[in-house]
Amino acid sequence: MKNFFERFIVLIIFIAIAHTFLSDFAIYRTWPSVHIRYLLIAGFAIDVIFSIEFFTRTIAAAGKRGGGVLHYWLHERGWVDFLSSLPLLALSSGPAMYIMFFVPDQTAAASLGFINVLKVVKAIRVTRILRLVRIVKIFGRIHNTDSPMAQHHTSYIASGAIFAVIAVLFAFSFVGASHQGIDARMQHYSSLVRTVASIHGADRRSDEIIRQMLLRDPLVLSATKGETVLKALAEDAAAHHSLDTAVEITVTGYRVRLSTADIESAQALVSLQAFCIILALSIVIAFFYARHFAMTITDIIYIISKGMRLRDYNLEVRIPERYRDHEVFRLASYYNDRFLPVKSRKYGDGMQQSVSLSDFMKFTGKQ
Amino acid sequence: MADGRVNDLVNYLFNSPGVSGGTALQTEGAVVQFLLTNFRQLEPALRQPQFFPDRKPNEVLALLMGEIKRRTMQYLSPKMLEEINRIDFTFLVQQDRTGSFSAEMFRKYTTDFVLVLLESTEARLAFNASFNLLHYKILDRYVSEIFTKRTPTYFELTRVQRNNLSAGDYLNYLRLLLIIRPAAFRKVRLEGFSESEVSLSDFMNVPPTMENYFAARTKSLYQELPGMPPELFRMALRSNINSAHHTPEEASAKFLAILCARFQTYQENRKADRGAETPDKSWFSVARKNVKHNGFDKRMLDDLYLIAGNNGW
After folding, report:
1. A285 to chain B nearest CA, in Å?
2. Does the N-terminal or the C-terminal CB of chain A have fewer CB atoms within 10 Å?
3. In whole angstroms, what is the distance from residue B238 CA to residue B251 CA?
4. pTM to 2 decimals?
5. How far does B82 lie from chain A, in Å, by closest CA?
6. Burial code of A255-278, b = ≥16 C-beta within 10 A, e = fewer?
7. What ipTM score was computed for the predicted complex, to two decimals?
8. Separation of CA A217 from chain center
9. In this predicted structure, what is the pLDDT of residue B1?
10. Smallest Cβ distance to B31: which of A294, A355, A364?
11. Is the dihedral of CA B133, B138, B141, B145 positive or negative?
12. What is residue B49's predicted lDDT score, i.e. its pLDDT?
């Protein structure tokens, strides 16, 4: 059961990583909103699974001796499990799902400023970065080397490096160009509408000027004044814009829905770059550094330890010339030049074969 | 009924975890040693009704030893005969000045000689290294490398020993030495030397007597393998001792002494752990460092170390 659970989580980690990529890629390529909605649902499901995993592990750790929850948090990557589950569920996929299923008129929600409020606190965008933490989870689950020491050190350095990158991205997300761009766009159109309205007064003439002004602007998705539709939402625009790629402004009775797809797309490209940087970093650490670590440290220790423990193990450590001055290879040199010759003199060389008397007695007892 | 029990018991011993992974002779050696060392402690268990309640301990031991020997012989004899068939005895025919021996005669003498030798437990167990070197073609690959690359050992074997054999003939010569060398451990009565049956084990630590033993055993071997040069027997017998007792001309004996020590234990297809040197290279390297203790020829060890390293052996 435990194995099944662990394998299932590993599978979900890989799905979550693919999902992280696809979510940004979908915005970058302005996929139809229906696809983005599916990705949102998938993201919610993933967040729920990771939250359950986090709670399960916390409860299991609480029942264990020797440190319990604190040990899980500090030494078994509880903090990684936490960061990649609950904040995302509470601040990103959870609210998005709520709006999708429980707010019938999403434009109304927008008009209430719900989305904009969230954007003001920048919580959604900031927490999204935490999805990248899931890459760190791989290191705790996948054993790409037999050595626990290599596994531990690789995982430690990977967590440190990836988390440093994420922390920088996190910090920069508060001053990100994306928000500034969206704010600037909202301010620009607000001031435009306000200026026209103030010059021409709130009459039909000003409606017509504003209608003419907004009608040909591809960034304006729709515009209304009370019941009057100044620009209807085109079918194609509706299909390709979701809550993530549109904002609404209300100025002197005009409600104008603006596309932010271009800004979001540029931001998504930056996110994809960050994703790829972290993925590449992980691959380099998991495959190249882990291998290098094993070959220059743990393999050597393993051979020396085996040679000391087993009477019939007499293989020397291979010492590459370029690493001869490394401490571990100096130890290996001592093992090759001193320990093995003495051991060979004392115990001989070959395989020591013997039948055990206790095994034999067990056999005779069984008959 | 007793056969079934003997069979079960020997089956268990041959398959017990402590002896798995070794060669047939290593396994036999370990099982024989276990029985001889612990038989007193095993007696009460073996007297239980499900085993041998009606037999005397000596009879039980004889039954077990007989079955152990039968099994090893069943495995070993055909393989040894195969190895004898691989030897081309022409080089001996060419050395025979009387002209009365053919290659087939030498083959027959050698076959009969080996079958007699294998009957003796001590000699059979002493076959271990020879068997490994022959059966796993280890000798072939080292000799081929030495002769192809003309390494220092090549000069040692051809110039210092002053033999004029080609690589192929030299390989046959060494194969024959390997087959004859365990004869030193078969207990025999040696005319003019000992009244009782003796083997090299009795004189291993008494060099002057050992030399007399070699001389007497060389004579007796001529009776068993007629037509073969006494020099060949002497070289085969002396390959059982270390180089400290060898003359410079006994290069083949020195060479085989090293190889036999190395391949006393052998695991086919054993792979070195990542980061470790290969088994042969490691062994020769350690042996080089222990040269003062093991008495092997340092230059040959250096050479074999390089060969093993260059070939990943």
Report:
1. 20
2. N
3. 11
4. 0.79
5. 26
6. bbbbbbbebbeebbebbbebbeeb
7. 0.86
8. 37
9. 47
10. A355
11. negative
12. 82
